[in-house]
Prior knowledge:
This protein is an all-beta fold. It has no helices and 28 strands. The strands form 7 sheets. The protein has a 4-stranded antiparallel sheet with strand order 1-28-27-26, with no helix packed on it. The chain is globular and about 55 Å long. The chain starts with about 30 loop residues before the first strand and ends with a strand.
Amino acid sequence: MMKLSLLLTIVVLATNSNLRGQAKQSDCVARQYRVVALPLRPAQINDVHQVAGTTTRHQAGLWSEQSGLRELPLPTGFHNSEAVGVNSAGVLSGTLYERNSTEPRAFKSSGDRVFLLEGKRSVAHGIDDSGEVAGEAILPGKTTTGPALWTERSTVSLAGCCGGTARGVNNHGQVIADVYDQAGGYAAFLWNAKDGLKPIGPPQRYSSAIAINDSGHVIIQVFTEAYLYADGKTTLLNLSHDDPSQPRAINNCDVIVGSFGPFADANRAFLWEKSVGFHDLNSLIPADSGWKLEVATSINDHGEIVGWGNHKNDDDAGFLLIPQH
């Protein structure tokens, strides 16, 4: 593992700062982070410093340091909700739940307005800057839950016979999905409107697509192993040497965050980048912070990280890590 002093020496010069999928590498990693406690369990942070997540009242919420916490109003008939994604315009994606019901309903929101998405038993995952939402639903004409993409104009079914789920969409219309086959096996796929589905996981193994960035680079989980699909190649990631790792997010610098540990109650949050290697995020915050960072769920292109952990014996406390360059 390289020394932490290398963390600030990585510089990738963008040839065009307006192109998506490019970010200054020096903005994406840091020697130390400042910890901010959040009033919700965070799922994602966007590039304008807004955090989507679920509050202690089990409602979808949006937080920023400037505006504080805003809970999303529940539409009539629903008991609770969760937010799982937020785009650069502050539009949330998530799922609504009725009391004692097995019929979740995917949504996206604009301000306090909630828009229900088409399909039965629908669940939303990622959202892009144009408002397209990736998730899963039983769509009209289907009998099983399958990967879906909700666009402004229509709802697109991404797979055929046997179901699955779409887990994310980037700002170039690329969607990651787990798709089942007739034998009950599942594998990670990449989809776009022109080419359809393309398998991207290691051959002959069950695999799950976890996250995608604007370069089309995808994190893939294969049991306890993690892979990176980039430029047509699937490569094993060198994460924790001792414990299973669960990557959860990747930004446009190819910095990956997630959790690692022998079991869930012993998880610790991590950061990985190709040039600087694997780091326990707990080693990059003040030792007297009172925090044990357990799970990192998202990282933006400023290197800000959100997740949850234990804060002075408060379990599942949300945190925001702000780089100290």
